[in-house]
Amino acid sequence: MHALHHQMGELRRPRLLIRAARLGMADYRRDRDLKRLLGAVPGPESSLAQLIAEETRMDAKRREGAAEYDLRRHLEIIIAMIAEAQMIPRVQDPAPAPMPRTAPETAARTAARTTPEARPAAAPLAAR
Q1: Which among 26, 59, 67, 92 is most buried, taking Cβ atoms within 10 Å?
Q2: For residue 88, what are the contacts with CB-CB under 8 A and spacing of at least 6?
Q3: pLDDT single digits (tens) 19-72
Q4: Pfam families annotated for this entry (predicted)?
């Protein structure tokens, strides 16, 4: 999984804040909103990293009850985070490689296929 997706998965925010952000996704416009929030429109990975850092600062202000906390801005940042995260493809962890066979296992399989005792006996021709 991408490191930024992992960071997003670790965030714990009030349910109402997240629900409001999901509803706000319908009005999200990348060019307009990122210029307002970040001052520029960087690529999705760069913008998500910046948004996560800004959201972390905003959440700290919210928890402290700071007078300068701006709920509207916090919500806009979360909306942008969700939208930018959706633009970054999730990288699946590669499937584990099959365990290599040990030499004795390989030798035993080869011997079983090639020895006459291992082959099934042919049915007698007269029985057909």
Answers
A1: 59
A2: 2, 4, 5, 44, 45, 48
A3: 999 999 999 999 999 999 999 888 888 899 999 999 999 999 999 999 999 999
A4: DUF6477 (PF20083)
What is the CB-side half-sphere exposure of residue 82 using CA atoms within 13 A? 18
Running DSSP on this structure, what letter comes out for residue 39? Answer: S
The distance of Cα 19 from the centroid of its chain, to the nearest Å, equals 21
Q: CA triplet 74, 80, 83: central angle to 5 degrees? A: 145
For 107, the token pair is 């030798």
pTM to 2 decimal places = 0.64
Residues 6+ apart with CB under 8 A from 94: none
Annotated domain spans of the chain? 3-87
Q: What is the pLDDT of residue 14?
A: 84
Length of the chain: 128
Token readout for 49 is: 């990293």
